[in-house]
Design a protein that fits this description.
- This protein has 468 residues and is α/β, with parallel strands linked by helices.
- The chain has 2 domains: 385 residues, Glycosidases (TIM Barrel), CATH 3.20.20.80; 65 residues, Immunoglobulin-like (Sandwich), CATH 2.60.40.
- 29% of the residues lie in helices and 19% in strands.
- The protein contains 15 helices and 20 strands.
- β14 and β15 form a beta hairpin.
- α7 packs parallel to α8.
C-alpha cells in the first residue's frame, strides 16, 4: 500500500467472528503512529486492493465541517480505509430547496465550497492529510442538474433543458423539484462543466470523482471529460450507474443488482443459488462487455450508502441478523467494498437527508470487523478488485439451499468462505479437493485443517472466512 505504520497497538470495540456477533464495549483506540509517505496519483494498479469509504460531512460531527472530519482520517486509515469519497462539497441552492438545509445534490456553484463545511483551504487541508497517509480523495460530482438559483441558470438559461414553452424543467421522470436539468446538446455548457471538473484537480489536488446518476449524462461527454482530467493527472472515476457502457470513461460502477440480491437473501426471498447464478450470468456478461473498454472493470459492492440508508433503511432494517454475512460477501466476491459513514460505529438510524442529524461515534462496534476484512482485502490477491482478482469457484454442499461456499484463488493465494444464508442452523458437508489442507482463520488467531470431505455446523447467518 501507499502508507507506513510504525509498530503499535490497535484495540477496537468489537470482538467479531463467524460464530459470534460484534459486542459493545468501552471504545478504546490506542493510536498507531502513522508515518507520512510520498504521494503518488491513483492508477488501477495502485487501487486494486483498496476499500472505499463514503463521507457524509454534514452528519459526521456536531460541527459538520471539513476540519472536524480531518480528525477522523487517521482512525479510518488505521481501519484500512484507502479511498475517501466526499459527498458534494458545493453551496446548496435556496430556491425550491427541500427541507431546512437542502440536498447536497442541488449544486449552486460548481467552483465554490459550501460555507457550512469551511473554506477552500480547509478542503485542501483534508486532501493533504489524506495524501500524507497514502489515501485518495474523490469528490461527489453532480453533472446532470443544478440548483435553480446558481450562476449558470441565472446567466445561461439556454444551457438547461426547456419545455415547448421555454420553461426550464426538472430531470425527466423524477420528482427532483429542487434541481434543473442541464442540456448536453449545448457545447458551451459541456466546456464549462469540464472546466469545473478540472478546476478541483488543479486547485485542491483531488484524485477523481464519484459521478451522480452518471448514465443520465451522455457517455461521450464523460469520455471527453476523462481525457481532460487525465491530462492534469491520473484520476480514479466511479460512476453511479450499473451498465457497462459507462466504463468507456469510468474505472468502477455500482453493483446495484448484487446489492438488491443481498437484501433479498437476507429477507429469505432468495438464497445461495441466486448468488451463484448472478455471478455466472450477469457479472460474466458485464466482464465480457467491458473487457475492450479503456478503463477499469471494477464493481463497487455495498450493504449501505447515503441513498440506501436515508430512503430504504439501515442495513439492520433491510438485512437484520444477516448483515455481517452480507458485508463479508462484499469483500470476498468480485468488486471493491464500500463502507458508509457510521457503519463502523453500528449506525442504526436513517440519517435525515435535508436536515442536521449527527452520527454517534461514541463507540465503534464494527471497527475490528472491518479492519480484519480490509486487511484481508489488502493482502490477499485472490480477492483484489476486477481483473486483478482471482478465480471464483462455488463449491457444492449437501445443503445448497442454505449454504454458500466458494474459493477465490490467484497465484497460490486463496480465500475460502463458507456461510449459512438462512434462519435455520445447518449441519452439512463439503466434498471437494479445494478445501483440503490447512487454513488460517481470518477472524480468529488459530487455523483449521480440513479433509477433502469435511463436516460443518453453522448457526443461522454465521460464516467462516479462511486464507492461505
Amino acid at each position: 500500500m501507499l502508507y507506513a505504520l510504525s509498530l503499535g497497538l490497535f484495540l477496537g470495540s468489537c470482538g467479531d467472528s463467524g460464530q459470534g456477533e460484534p459486542t459493545a464495549a468501552a471504545d478504546s483506540i490506542v493510536p498507531l503512529e502513522l508515518t507520512a509517505v510520498d504521494y503518488e496519483p491513483p492508477t488501477l494498479e495502485r487501487v486494486k486492493n483498496m476499500t472505499i469509504y463514503e463521507v457524509n460531512v454534514r452528519q459526521y460531527s456536531e460541527k459538520g465541517d471539513f476540519a472536524s472530519f480531518i480528525e477522523h482520517i487517521p482512525r479510518l486509515k488505521m481501519m484500512g480505509v484507502d479511498i475517501l469519497w466526499i459527498m458534494p462539497i458545493h453551496p446548496i441552492g435556496v430556491k425550491n430547496r427541500k427541507g431546512g438545509m437542502g440536498s447536497y445534490y442541488a449544486v449552486q456553484d460548481y467552483k465554490a465550497v459550501n460555507p457550512e463545511f469551511g473554506t477552500l483551504d480547509d478542503l485542501k487541508a483534508l486532501v493533504n492529510k489524506a495524501h500524507e497517509l497514502g489515501m485518495y480523495v474523490i469528490l461527489d460530482w453532480v453533472a446532470n442538474h443544478t440548483a435553480w438559483d446558481g450562476p449558470w441558470i441565472e446567466n445561461h438559461p439556454e444551457w438547461f433543458t426547456q419545455d415547448a414553452q421555454g420553461n426550464v424543467v426538472v430531470p425527466e421522470g423524477t420528482d427532483w423539484t429542487d434541481v434543473a436539468d442541464l442540456n448536453y446538446d449545448v457545447p458551451e455548457m459541456r466546456a464549462a462543466m469540464i472546466d469545473a471538473l478540472t478546476y478541483w484537480v488543479k486547485e485542491a489536488d483531488i484524485d477523481g470523482y464519484r459521478c451522480d446518476v452518471a448514465g443520465m449524462v451522455p457517455t461521450d461527454f464523460w469520455v471527453e471529460a476523462r481525457k481532460a482530467l487525465d491530462e492534469v493527472k491520473p484520476v480514479f472515476m466511479l460512476a453511479e450507474w450499473g451498465t457497462p457502457e459507462v466504463h468507456a470513461a469510468f474505472d468502477m460502477s455500482y453493483g446495484w443488482d448484487f446489492h438488491h440480491i443481498l437484501n433479498e437473501v437476507a429477507q429469505a426471498k432468495k438464497g445461495p443459488k441466486d448468488i451463484q447464478l448472478y455471478f455466472a450470468t450477469n457479472e460474466a456478461a458485464f466482464v465480457d462487455s467491458v473487457k475492450d473498454l479503456p478503463y477499469g472493470d471494477f464493481r463497487m459492492q455495498f450493504t449501505s450508502n447515503h441513498d440506501e440508508n436515508s430512503w430504504n433503511g439501515t442495513e439492520f432494517e433491510r438485512m437484520g441478523d444477516a448483515y455481517p454475512a452480507m458485508a463479508v460477501l462484499t469483500y470476498t466476491l468480485p468488486g471493491m467494498p464500500l463502507i458508509y459513514s457510521g457503519q463502523e460505529a453500528g449506525l442504526d438510524k436513517r440519517l435525515s437527508f435535508f436536515e442536521k442529524d449527527t452520527i454517534d461515534f461514541s463507540t465503534t462496534l464494527y471497527a475490528d470487523f472491518y479492519t480484519k476484512l480490509n486487511t484481508l482485502k489488502e493482502n490477499n490477491p485472490a480477492i483484489w478488485s476486477g481483473s486483478f482478482g482471482g478465480s471464483l469457484e462455488f463449491l457444492k454442499t449437501d445443503k445448497d439451499a442454505q449454504i454458500l461456499a466458494f474459493v477465490r484463488e490467484k497465484d497460490g493465494n486463496q480465500v475460502l468462505v463458507i456461510m449459512n444464508l438462512s434462519k435455520q442452523s445447518a449441519a452439512f458437508s463439503i466434498d471437494s479437493p479445494a478445501i483440503e489442507g490447512e487454513w488460517e482463520d481470518v477472524f480468529f488467531t488459530e487455523g483449521d485443517v480440513f479433509a477433502k470431505k469435511q463436516e460443518f455446523n453453522l448457526d443461522p447467518w454465521k460464516y467462516m472466512v479462511y486464507r492461505r
